[in-house]
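Technical annex B. To support the medicinal chemistry partners, we prepared a structural model of the target in complex with NAP, based solely on the information shown next.
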Amino acid sequence: MKKIAILGVTGSIGGNAVDVVLSHPEAFKVTAVSALKSREACEEAARKLGAKAYVGEDAATRAVEENDADICLVATVGLSGLKPTLAAIEKGMDIALATKEVMVMAGELVTSAAKRKGVKFLPVDSEHSAIWQCLAGTEGNGAVDRLILTASGGPFLDAPSDLSAVTPAQALNHPRWKMGPKVTVDSSTMMNKGFEILEARWLFGVPVDRIDVVVHPESIVHSLVTFTDGATLAQLSPPDMRVAIQYALTGPKRLRSERARLDLAALGALTFRKPDPVRFPCLELVKASARAGGCASAVLAAADEWAVDAFLSGRIPYTGIAKTVEEVLEHAPEMACDSPEAVFEAAEWTRRRLEGLKG
Ligand SMILES: NC(=O)c1ccc[n+]([C@@H]2O[C@H](COP(=O)([O-])OP(=O)(O)OC[C@H]3O[C@@H](n4cnc5c(N)ncnc54)[C@H](OP(=O)(O)O)[C@@H]3O)[C@@H](O)[C@H]2O)c1
């Protein structure tokens, strides 16, 4: 029986994780759950799971510090995942990581801390779960030629090219996945896919210039690995986050589930195309931040967090998200990213600059 802590239990990933755990009571015991504000929902989840509930700003970190677990599922939003992730690593828990911003902003920091403590990162994002599954049985990553992340393309894949009048409701209307608001908007701009490139870099130790993105609107192929012998492996399943969440908690073992199976003949065709760099400028911005190194990716993610919030609350237009990020990246000073304080300082610098510019 594996002991699990679920941080962000009231969210989309958290709710799916509760489902997975409840469908296998013989395999999992949840010890603690956390949320930011949704006290009632958090306590309800805790009651169902027989776990302790923590609510508030520092709830996720306290849930880790005051409880034991073999795996800590980190599914909060943005940089809020960093402190509890480091606390869980310190306690020797493996990290099932949904909160990709932790890797984006502090990848070097958390992966070296995990190495020191001998704990593993278990991918939760469906794309990284797919890559992890494709790599099962491959020794080291010397045999990996390229990683290929698939992207649904979001709601604006085939929209008219002028996206300046896009409303929050339109951006929140994802065609395939039901997710929290921040990640849904990030999916529509493809910033999310850029974040996934950075996440893959740290999770699998493959440089960003060997990670490709291909648009695959059906969201059936969740990602692929091309090996040095010319073989390419892919992982396919109906779009359901519970497949990836369950594998994060059990992989490389598999537990039976009654979830829908693929019917390829019914699907008929799967399609793939290149992402349009004009429509989705965020992809290139992410690569530029990786090339700049230091805290540039932390600045990028903090600027995106600010800009998505500003867009959702009507303070900037949709196209202002990429513009804001680009502008901040251009002016960011070189900053080392070798401690949690440095990451928070880079995020703080970004917010101060943005409030100064737009506030
Ligand atoms: N949803 C998906 O399918 C999906 C797929 C791949 C990766 N991810 C990633 O997984 C993470 C969670 O996504 P989600 O869609 O589940 O988000 P969500 O639905 O917005 O849920 C976020 C959860 O985290 C809590 N939370 C929010 N801000 C917090 C803070 N500052 N400190 C502590 N807890 C906080 C929320 O509590 P309250 O309810 O109290 O606000 C809620 O429990 C994100 O990083 C996202 O990029 C999501």
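Notes passed to the chemistry partners:
The mean pLDDT is 95.
DSSP finds 15 helices and ten strands in the chain.
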